[in-house]
Amino acid sequence: MHGLINRAIQGFVSDNFGAMRWRAICRAARLEDCEFESMLHYEDSLTERLLDAVAADIGVPREAVLEDIGTYLVSHPNVEALRRLLRFGGESFVEFLHSLDELPERARLAVDDLGLPVLELRDVNVAEGHYRLCCRFAQAGFGHVLIGVLRTLADDYGALAFLEHRGVVVTKAGEAIETIDITVFETAFAAGRSFDLGAQAG
Amino acid sequence: MRQEQEAEFHGLLDLFCPMHALLGPEGEVIHMGATFAKLVGGEAALGQGFLDLFEVLRPQGCETIADLRAEAGQKLSLRLREGSRATFKGILAPFGEGAAINLSFGISIMDGVRDFGLSGSDFAATDLAIEMLYLIEAKSVALGASRKLNQRLQGAKIAAEEQAFTDTLTGLKNRRAVDHVLSRLIERGGPYAVMQIDLDYFKAVNDSHGHPAGDHVLQQVARILVEETRSGDCVARVGGDEFVLILDGVRGRDELARIAGRLISRIEEPVPWRGAQLCISASVGIAIGEAGSRDGGAVLFDRVDKALYAAKHAGRAQFCFAD
Which residues in chain B are closer than 8 Å to A110, comparing Cβ atoms? Predict the structure, then answer.
């Protein structure tokens, strides 16, 4: 797994629960080092152990942890850069949803060895704001992170949206396909957060 | 152009080139795209002379609409006369008796977007400006992460070097290792011997044959020192051409003298180097830490230093015992 992903988990735990809690979780997950490097790669199994340890420590299901990580990634001031990069995807929430197809390519432009899920947005009923997002990745769970990201970004854009995880199918090749149903009720529900193109974060 | 056609034409330009303007025969702005309007302060700019709003940086000497029309199809570089210092790229085509001109930010896109408070909808959907801004920002975030990693690795490298006991050129022990070994021996008590070896004529080799030759000589000396000592002895390079041997266990003055003599004569054997013969020699100071001695490392090194000085003073290629 790319270090950025492990680093996101580290940031989520330390920024929300403190460094002591993070070290305790690392011990529980039998990690040798509590500090992940954003630009290195780590064993996939290590990330799995880590997520289980976080879920056990916080006392919520793993899916909830993943969703909270998604929320953290686009709302916490320490990771403001990521929110900005995502907002480049579109002027409105719907436009942003359509830019999700390009997400892996956008990520590669920034960090060329960062493997992200393949995303595909289908228009189910545009007039009623229904969309379906398919997320294909080597591991299951990314869909829940996406729900956290999308729910928070909808707020960010000032849109009102409803999101639902429709489950995961594992293909014969071992690839996990997760489906998310999205309903956008109003695109201008609230003022949202501003996005100034020229103001670089950090 | 019929009115209907003209409206269609303007609509097309507005959509495809939001940073364009149409100029009349006197160079006055007669129509402009929405983003162009943001650059020049809105509708009030209609009717003003394009060259009163913009300064043409290149090609130089563009002062009139006729000059501008003469540069049709050429790449222009422009700047606003007031406000932002951002530069624009431009291209112009004759249009009626005036001209049509289209602008872009080129490399100063960051400044431009900030100065004029532009957003995604200010650029044509086909314009790569937004992707460009994304890329600039994404790269600077990624570079920041890489830089942090490099700094941490650099710190770790320095820490590792500080803790190292090895001289990287010769593979011998270093000064840190000598201090470490000696303090252990002093704690345990003697007997042991310390030899300090200083190369003679080494500087001459370095000066006349270059540093690679000097390094080669140091490596040969290191090999000789290792061959002439026992595996339990500590052999270290402690300075440019200074070496220290710490010989553990009882060895009489005679044996130490024999070792020192052999070392000097072997070091004096010429070393072949790219067709030349490199000749050096060595001076040796020897101090013995007697059984039951309570001398600290500083005292011992002071004694061995004096012995080395005496050896040097006695002419090169000598060894000398501390009293």
Answer: 135, 138-139, 141-142
The yes-or-no verdict on residue A202 having pLDDT over 50 is no
What does the angle CA B73 – CA B78 – CA B79 come to, to the nearest 5 degrees?
165
In this complex, is the C-beta atom of A193 within 8 Å of any C-beta atom belonging to chain B?
Answer: no
- Residue to mutate among A85, A114, A197, A200, with most B CBs inside 10 A, is A197
Pairwise CA distance, residues A55 & A23, whole Å: 14
Minimal Cβ distance to B149: which of A39, A81, A91: A39
d(CA B247, CA B235): 9
Dihedral sign (CA B15, B17, B18, B22) = negative
* Assigned superfamily of A77-186: H-NOX domain (3.90.1520.10)
Question: What are the domain boundaries of chain A?
Answer: 3-59, 77-186
Cβ <8 Å between A81 and B137: yes
DSSP-H helix ranges across chain A: 3-17, 19-28, 44-58, 62-75, 80-87, 93-99, 103-110, 142-157
A91 contacts in B (CB within 8 Å)?
119-121
Q: Are the C-beta atoms of residues B138 and A4 closer than 8 Å to each other?
A: no
Q: What averages of pLDDT result for each successive group of 10 residues across chain B (323 residues)? A: 88 96 96 96 94 94 92 94 91 95 91 89 90 89 87 86 84 89 82 92 92 94 93 90 89 89 94 92 90 73 91 89 85
Alpha carbons A79 and A49: distance in angstroms, whole number = 24
pLDDT of residue A99: 92
What tens digit of pLDDT does each residue of B222-251 get?
A: 999 999 998 889 999 998 899 999 998 867
Residues 54-73 of A with CB under 8 A from B: none
Cα B175 to Cα B162, B303, B304: the distances in Å are: 11, 17, 15
Class for the domain spanning B3-127: alpha beta
For B254, list phi and psi in degrees, rounded to 5. -60, -45
Q: What's the pLDDT tens digit per position in B133-151?
A: 888 888 888 888 888 888 8
Please state the domain extents for chain B: 3-127, 175-321
Q: Which residues of B touch A4 (CB under 8 A)?
A: 145
Give me the mean pLDDT over the A146-165 stretch: 94
Residues of B with CB under 8 A from a CB of A: 110, 113-115, 117-121, 130-131, 133-142, 144-146, 148-149, 152
What CATH architecture applies to the domain B175-321? 2-Layer Sandwich (3.30)
C-alpha–C-alpha distance, residues B30 and B45, integer Å = 9
